[in-house]
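Sample pair:
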Amino acid sequence: MTALVVDFIALPSVDFDALAAEMDSLAILPPPEEGETIDGYRLEHLLSDAAYARIFVARDRENRIVLKFPKTMLLSEDGARLAFLREGFLGRQVESPYVGRTLALPEGSQSRLYIAMPFYAGKSLETKISEEQVPLRDAVAIALKLSRGVASLHRRGIAHRDIKPGNVILTSDGGLKLIDLGIARVPNFKELPENEVPGTASYMAPELFKGELGDAISDQFSLGVTIYRLFTGHYPYGETAPFTTPLFGPPIPASQYRPEMPARLEAAIMKAISLRRDDRFADVEELIYQLETGMLNVLPPRNAVPLFRRNPILLWKCISALLIAVAIVEFLLMR
């Protein structure tokens, strides 16, 4: 006889229907400007002004947080509400040290539609890549954290659908946060209108340009391109302009930019960005294993010391043994 004991640590903190009703009641207004005060939060400085949202670091009397406001130039009001509802809900439900959170503000405190997130001090992975060529072992550590964050989403049936360096924060304490879950695909969630599903063309898998909605396997491609850029600073298939379809050809091997990259590590990255879905890993967990083991056979560099300096006695013993062996062979041949 076997028994299964289930320990309920906590119940979900967010009621989806209540959150949806609250967001539906909030007005969508033109995005604010730096220096304005919204619901008691002063917008200190602009973090990002992208096509679909404007993001600020904000402060009240006690805390610094991040506020994200929708922009409806390219996204309908219904699309904006769906995206912000999705991000607000998932950011409170997914428990992972590598996925960014969203914050629950006091009920009735919002005068307009926006979402609040913790302020993560640090820099984006995009900034890191533009500043330096990341050392191999540091790049592996970053790639592992990001992959584990993606895997935590996939275990819950969530496809991120916009994995890229700009959506990854490297925190000042050495951590990592994958952010922007607004276009994530979630089981039983209403899908965004087909013509409004955004993404970043240079990181999108080929099947997404054929109308597929995206899943864990297409996420793996985006993750692979992100990791490729982390190691090389380049795009494997070239950079693609927004709202255009890339011309997929043979990818440039990562070792062309980083000759010191171990072959096993390169093979793992190139497999993740295969153009055919069936040629990629079965899941991101397999990619994580390959990243973990890709550097195992790489020995740290060391200054070579000649044997006659390290162990001169052993050297002369070897020479003497060799000379004796040669003498014996010559003696036998002369008989």
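The CA atoms of residues 183 and 198 lie 7 Å apart.
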